[in-house]
Amino acid sequence: MSLVHRVLNLFYRPKVDREIEAELKSHIEMRIQDNVASGMSPDVARRDALLRFGNPTVTKEQVIAVDAALTLESIGMDLRYAFRRLTKSPGFSVTAILTFGLGIGATTAIFSAAYAVLLRSLPFQQADRIIGIYETHPQIVGGAEVNFLDYQDWRRQQTSFEQVAAYSGASSDTMSLVMGDHGEQVHTVLASSNLFSLLGIAPFMGRTFVDQDDTPNANHVVVLSAEAWQRYFGGDHGILGRNIDLNGVSYAVIGVLPPGGAYPTAGEFWMPLSLTDKESQTRRVGHTLDVLGRLKPGVELAEARADMQTIAARLAQAYPATNKNIGVQLTPLREQLVGSLRPAILTLLGCVVLVLCIACANVANLLLVRAAAHAREAAVRQALGASRLRLLSQYLSETLILCLLGGLLGTGLAALTLPLLRVAFAHTGGADPSLIQSIELNVPVLLVASSVCLCTAILFALLPMKKAPNRLADSLRPGDRSSTGRRSWSSSALISTEIAIAIVVLFLGALLIRSFEKLIHVNPGFRTDHLLSLEITLPEPRYQDETMATNHFYERLIDKLQQSPGIVSAGTTIALPFKASHAMTRFLVAGEPALAPGALPMEQVRVVSPEFFQTMGLQLKQGRGFERKDVENSSDLIIVNQAFARRYLSGKDPLTSSILMNVLSPHPEKMPVIGVVTDAHDLGVESEAEPVLYFPGFGVHVVLLIRTNTDPKSILAEVRNAVSELDPAQPIYHVETIDEVLSDSLARQRMIAVLLGIFASLALTLAAIGIYGVIAYSVAQRTREIGVRMAVGSSRANILLLMLREAAAFTGIGVLVGLIAALAGAHLASALLFQTSSADPASICVSVSALLIIAMSAAVLPASRAASINPVEALRSE
Amino acid sequence: MARNDLLGSLGFLVLKTLSQSGSLHGYGIVLHIQRASDELLRVEEGSLYPALHRMEQSGWISSEWALTETNRKAKYYKLTAAGRKELQEVEKSFEQLVKGVRAMLRYA
Q1: In chain A, which stretches have pLDDT less than 50?
Q2: Residue to substitute from B35, B43, B45, interface A, most A β-carbons within 10 A
Q3: Can you give the residue range of the structural domain that contains B60?
Q4: Whether A53 and B45 lie within 8 Å, measured CB to CB
Q5: Do B25 and A26 touch (CB under 8 A)?
Q6: Are the C-beta atoms of A642 and A613 separated by less than 8 Å?
Q7: Nearest C-alpha of chain A: how many angstroms from B107?
């Protein structure tokens, strides 16, 4: 109660003051009256009364301190005073707030991305216990999908996981959903019955799969994603139990998944895994499944890995033909969802923290300068009885205001940039979209940002305390020069550090920009402009791979399209250029010694239409291309690319060579090579052109490529017309220009290059501000010294040099230290670099010279002001 | 004991004074302590006031402005119920202290 009373008393300060004064006064007067009554003269009586009473002012202060919460009041006073002081030097305040705001803003934005992608827990039960299990092959980078039979064996033999589940996430399977008169191509995923219970996902409506659904002769059932339910059925609650038509087969809807789409893959229609085609279920050749396992309690990842490797070795022994080179790889689900984004985000976070450090060094420098200027005020306050704690509280209120305003500005900036950041990250393949969408300013992010603000405010407040004089006499002596004659060591160290950090950020920025530049100048082997791609999947069983009906459909479509004036040529293939494809096949060059089945080479395979090469712009180097009759006759002919010829047919005439296909079956087929085409960086710009085997033909699913002589998107209506003339219910999907595909495939690198470029220029700007500030202050402090120097004969050029030498000294040290740190740190980012050494000389030159130029121009301005000082005025100034 | 320490002997004297003579102003309290202790105890008069205000904040005494016999405005303090209870406890622990010290003196 008494505290409330004391706080309330703050608001009645004048009244409380008056009452206390009156009370003390009445005491003294009563004593005087008694003294006089006992015979003292009035003067003596007053003296005696005061003597007995003690110092009335001190007593009054003490009594007030009892009655009112003065600490609170003094904090309020400090804040008001700090605010007045800050508004009195708006230049300083605005610079400090802007600098700090930029640093905090950039840091908050990048940290919120890092938090969403790397730190925040996934929306699954105990997500850290969920492990992705992959098969590995020496010729495939990273983990690959799993064979159906291998998955079954894993499931039976493993002992480390509570559950092992599988889904067909990798193959972008689609089916035609027929609704009344029109069709839609929808994304389907096959999932084992336990996938949802493994992830801990309960259905939004109805049920998910039970084991009976996942048996070969079960009724056809389907589970919808919430998004599919909305999009195709308008969120109809009567959907449960209804039959829907997919590829001409009827499926009963048994459930709807909760919204959010945070599943390990973005499927629309989920079906039991037992619907996997018979070929995959009976042969250890195709690899189509993504496998997840939930670790048993107490089992470590390493134990599970050993367990799975034992099983893989057992399978390799049992089935050497298919499994000899197949290993197993275990990756926590988080890693799988984050994809290649982790090194990128960590690099960005590192750089943005460095930028924040530069910003802080700048503000710290400004504060030091201010503290030096106010040293005498601090001394006077101390002399009048202010404790060091009281001084600290005053500095703290000043830095708190600065940091909180800066923090507010920064958070605002971050909030503005987050939508841009989400877009930038969304196109960087590899990371799960639901993770990217969760990039936001949430409580943990704001907590981190505000604690950074608080900590820096406290650090900043301690800085000028070091400057606060210990010996009062020193700083009160008039004309004192001890703190002004030479620039303080700490300020120089700060600015050198700042320059060193700026060099690190600049160097990293330069490296990644150069790497990106190299990337966009890679010749992909074909013209990417004026090339449109789209996908078509013809519904089975009406159409089948390589049958007359399928061939006719696509041949008539291509003929129709090629008659259009805007279209130069059109052809089909099975994989979108620039998208890493795992369509690979084992083979053997005829005439080579027979190899053990597990040692057979494996390369990319493409089934293409005769027009494909012309459409892509791949040139025939030898032999002939495919013709329509090759497709119609299902001729066993092969065209290879130059990379293939180099690796497998060197020293031979490719046109007389033959390749053995279906090598794992008892009767391999011998197919002659009829042509050699130029290479294309088909798997992505970053990877080298891989050897490719081309076969003639049309599958049910094709990627249709159209080379145009106008804007590729403008012919889309024509394409739709052409398709619907052939089959009105046939949808087309995934319409993109190849330029867009290429640009999307480079999005991650572009984003990092752009962001680091921004950070580098931010670092450079901040460093320039810092250098300018330090030199300008030095000039102001040394006005008198400069005056003396000029009076004894220094020329203006000498003065200019003197000031520039000072700038050169700390810039030089900063650049040297920075270079060492940059070279040491850059190899951490080497995972992000494409054909660029982490000690790239050009990047070193660019960053060092950029910094030197900026540093010198920032120093020249105040230095030339020093050189134009009028010596007479300078000497009179004190 | 802790509460006794907090209050201090000056506080004890003030509470005791007020319990004996009802309502008094600060100057009156000083005079009373001097008289009652046969001029043995003299307080620096100013230091009485922080103690008075602290006790008032604690709710042991209450105050009101009134006129003295010589028609001067002064602030009069008197004991509250809480103050009376406090005084009893302080007296008790003070007696214990005195007893203890006496025992020590005899023993030595």
Answers
A1: 480-485
A2: B45
A3: 2-107
A4: yes
A5: yes
A6: no
A7: 40
Structure token pair of residue A141: 């980078």
- Chain B CB contacts of A18 under 8 Å are none
Are A812 and A860 contacting, i.e. CB atoms less than 8 angstroms apart? no
* DSSP summary character for residue A115: I
The pLDDT tens digits of the residues spanning A92-118 come to: 899 899 999 999 999 999 999 888 888
Kind and range of the H or E element at A284?
Answer: none
Query: What residue has token string 């000389």?
Result: A841
Residue of A533, A577, A523, A575 whose CA lies nearest to A712 = A533
Burial classification of residue A82, based on how many CB atoms lie within 10 Å of its CB (0-12 exposed, 13-18 middle, 19 or more buried): buried
CB contact under 8 A, B74 and A23: yes
Could you identify the residue written with the tokens 């090339």?
A: A531
What is the rounded CA–CA span in Å between residue A696 and residue A608? 5
From B26, B47, B59, residue closest to A54, measured CB to CB: B47
HSE-up (13 A, CA, CB side) for residue A443 = 0
- Structure confidence at residue A485 (pLDDT): 44
Alpha-carbon separation of residue A646 from A653, A684, A688 (angstroms): 11, 20, 13
Q: How close A54 comes to chain B (CA, Å)?
A: 6
CATH assignment at residue B98: 1.10.10.10
Read off the pLDDT band of B2 (50, 70, 90).
very low
Sheet with strand B73-79: strands edge to edge: B24-25, B73-79, B61-67
Exposed, middle or buried: residue A498 (CB in 10 Å: 0-12, 13-18, 19+)? buried
DSSP-assigned letters across all residues of A506-575? HHHHHHHHHHHHHHHT---SS--TTEEEEEEEPPTTTS-TT-HHHHHHHHHHHHHHHHSTTEEEEEEESS
What residues of chain A lie within 8 A of the CB of B66, using their CB? none
Q: Which stretches of chain B are DSSP H helices? A: 2-21, 26-36, 48-57, 81-107
- Write the Ramachandran bin of A675: left for phi over 0, alpha for psi from -120 to 50, otherwise beta: beta
Phi, psi (5° rounding) for residue A712? Answer: -60, -35
Q: How far is CA A558 from CA A251, A545, A569, A612, in A?
A: 33, 17, 8, 11
Q: Which amino acid, one-letter code, is at A393? A: S
The pLDDT of residue A732 is 87
Q: Where are the alpha helices (DSSP H) in A468-488?
A: 472-476
Angle of helix A796-826 relative to helix A747-781, nearest 10 degrees, comes to 150
Tell me the C-alpha distance between A129 and A298, whole Å. Answer: 10
Contact A256, A208 (CB under 8 A): no
The Cα A120–Cα B6 span in angstroms is 52
* Domain spans of chain A, in order of start: 2-68, 127-338, 341-521+747-876, 539-729
Domain count, chain B: 1
Among residues of chain A, what percentage have pLDDT more than 70? 94
CA distance A811 to A499: 7
Sequence-ordered list of residues with C-beta below 8 angstroms from that of A562, at least 6 positions apart, any chain: A569, A570, A611
End-to-end CA distance of chain B: 24
Q: Which residues of B touch A63 (CB under 8 A)?
A: 49-50, 53
Contact yes or no for A26 and B27 at CB 8 A: yes
* The A567-573 sheet, strands edge to edge: A567-573, A701-708, A531-537, A733-737
**pLDDT value at residue A862:** 86
Which chain A residue shows the shortest CA-CA distance from B58?
A: A2
Interchain CB distance below 8 Å, B58 and A2: yes
Q: What's the angle, vertex CA A735, arms to CA A731 and CA A738, rounded to 5? A: 150
ipTM: 0.86
Q: Please name which of A519, A414, A498 lies closest in space to residue A854, comparing C-alpha atoms.
A: A498
Q: Is A435 helix (H, G, I), strand (E, B) or coil?
A: helix
Answer whether A607's CB lies under 8 Å from A697's CB: yes
Among A482, A358, A351, A401, residue whose Cα is nearest residue A78: A401
Angle between helical axes of A341-373 and A747-781 (0-180°, round to 10)? 10
